Amino acid sequence: MADRLFVYGTLLLATDTPMARWLAPRLGNGRAATISGRLAAIPARGGYFPALLPAPDHRRVIGMVFDAALSPDDWRTLDIYEGREYRRDTAWVSGPGGRRRAFCYRWVSALPPAARSIGGDFGAWLSRHRLAAFGAVRREI
Question: How is domain 4-128 classified at the architecture level of CATH?
Answer without folding.
Answer: Roll (3.10)
